[in-house]
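Section: Multi-chain targets

For targets with more than one molecule, the full set of components is provided together so that the structure can be written out for the assembly as a whole rather than chain by chain. Components appear in the order listed by the source. The example entry contains two components.
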Amino acid sequence: MNAPDLTLNGLLDRTLRADRGRIIAALISRVGDFQLAEDALQDASASALVHWGRSGAPSRPEAWLIRVAFRKAIDRLRRIARDARQTAAMAVLARDEADEEADIMDDRLRLIFTCCHPALEPKSRVALTLRTIAGLTTAEIARAFLDAEPTMAQRLTRAKTKLREAGIPFVIPGPEDWPDRLQSVLAVVYLIFNAGYTAGPAEPRDLCDEAIFLARLIARLSPPGLCNLAEVEGCLALMLLTHARRAARVEDGVTVPLGQQDRSLWDSAALAEGLALIDAAMARRSPGPYQIKAAIAACHAAAQPDWPQIAALYEGLARFEPTPVVHLNRAVALAETGALQPALDLLDRLGPALAAYQPYHAARAEYLARAESFGPARAAFGRAIALAASSADAAYLAKRRAALPH
Amino acid sequence: MQYLALIYSAPENEPKYGTPEFGAMMTGYNAFTAMLKETGAFVSGDGLKPVTTATSVRVKDGKVETMDGPFAETKEHLGGYYLMEVPDLDTAIKYAAQIPTAGYGMVELRPVMVW
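Its structure, encoded as tokens over all components, is:
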């Protein structure tokens, strides 16, 4: 750990890192424009160094930045105001500026819903959420999604322009739209989590942590009595339970399957929090796919996975998400309960849909081997190795294939 | 804000004239237009004759060139439009989803530019 940077530069950096999402949300909610808010914050940051140097650091740097950024936004609007809408925006700003001592509302929930608006491309929703709420830089987001930085910068600019020009409102959707819109938000959060899971903890900004931060924020800021809070908690629980195992997932560059992981490496605090969240979510009696997935993750975390229970949960999940991958997981759970032949029959039916899906061939190889069909098992391992996304997975599968009797 | 809802569909998916489905579609359009007028969102709206009646026009080197048919050869054709005055995109989407053709075709929403 480095000693904290006590210079004004350091204070500004820390404030922006910790509070950027809050500051930007407060600004966007007043000026109604992402780009204007970002530009105004940049202006305010530059003037912070000058003013703080002259008269000392303010007691609440984030409030100072918001206040000054408001003024900078008014300046910018004055320079470009051409139409009635911008003049009206200016009047609102001037009124808010007079109201300096008012408490700064936390507008991040509105901002999340806006960033995840279904009128934006899914990848742009992810990028905009990471940039605006989580405060990642364009370069960090580009690296996480293996894009060139200019490409990602363009994507962000396009998304911000569309938000402004298409009239996407900066609001939390009404009750009738809430379920669909929340699904879009949780899908973005979970995509961010999965990107972090695939990349592993090597990146300086762990996307898994960012996704968990976002889910906590949504759970905390959501209005009470919300029917879908159970799914927010389910999503958070699912991520916590998955993330708790990160230290045990890979050993010497080889993926370690769940049943063989060293449990002493699991994060017990994250596990406990995840399990408590599932209980809280279930008590709300509003089942949904994230809660079911979290319950499945909880079963896997038990000392002895309850396979009949897991198979039943996958059957429930298939009602929400009737995808081949969910059926594949149901087949795996079935096989583990001992119903090997029904599982292999189900796998055969899924073949055409999952021909290019590595986990399908890996699972089929395992259960063919268990049924002592060693020839077909060897062939299935071969296909799984050819399709493996990481060298750790390929190494594990090759080890399994080599262990087959000849 | 004003939004132009451009209504597209493939001719083979459209209800045929004289069938009960056609009648249901017409009733749906009448109800939708009445609802738009009631909420004050209606600016204008019309159906268009089929693309077989379309003529495309451009001027090249000062000469008017006409072409029989629509500008773009696509499966889905522009069949009508509504011009709506609503507060934001969410409201525009809510209305667009109630246009009968959205059930078998597609509605494109375009904000009108303000000068």
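Chain A has a mean pLDDT of 87.
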